[in-house]
Write a structure and sequence with these properties.
The protein is mainly alpha-helical. The protein is built from two helices and no strands.
Amino acid sequence: MNVLEKDSLIAEAKMQIKALKKINEWKRLAMLVSAIGVAVAYAGISVTPSNLFLGIPGIFLTLTGIIAAAVINLGLKNGRRNVEKMLWAVSKRRNGDCDEI
């Protein structure tokens, strides 16, 4: 791996770290939607159990937020692992510890 390849790999890792920060904001938004869903479901069910006008959409929002946050968290975990592998490859190349990656 020459210097140009190392520099491009480091630049790619920096771009992925920046993208992971944006994706983390989406995870927070999904968790916020889930919390709002819990509040709406509680308001709909606790006032009058026979009136499910707010209860059903609240449950739907809660489940949607939880599922979205779980999927986004999986993507974040895999993205972080990918960045670690790229930086490991660059550091191993700089040290001359391995020939093939």
